[in-house]
Amino acid sequence: MTQKLNRHGIPVRTARHGALAALAADLPSPILADVTGMHRHTALRWVAYARRDWAEYLAARAGKPPSNPK
């Protein structure tokens, strides 16, 4: 299935990673591991990735220094 979709220009891996990031943003890592069947350490990395603060990256892209909210 993946090969057929890729042949038609549908990037399956990108969509899969987007779906995993969305799940990881909403679920704790033990539940993500159980639901997806991935190892608990892998689930922990996905949750950390999904909850990362992207303010510095976005500020760099916009050419502005990041603000320091406190």
Model description:
This protein has five helices and no strands. The protein starts with a helix and ends in an 8-residue tail after the last helix. The chain is flat, with a radius of gyration of 16 Å. The chain has helices spanning 2-7, 12-26, 29-36, 40-50, 55-62. Helix 2 crosses helix 4 (40-50) and helix 3 packs across helix 4 (40-50). 69% of the residues lie in helices and 0% in strands. By secondary structure, the protein is mainly alpha-helical.
Short description:
By secondary structure, this protein is mainly alpha-helical. It contains five helices and no strands.
Poorly predicted tracts of residues: none
How much strand content do the residues show?
A: under 5%
Structural class determined from secondary elements: mainly alpha
The end-to-end span amounts to 48 Å
Shape call: flat
Largest sheet: none
Q: How would you summarize the topology of this molecule?
A:
Blueprint lengths: L1 H6 L4 H15 L2 H8 L3 H11 L4 H8 L8
Helix pairs in contact: 2-4, 3-4
Features of this protein?
single chain, 70 residues, mainly alpha, 0% strand
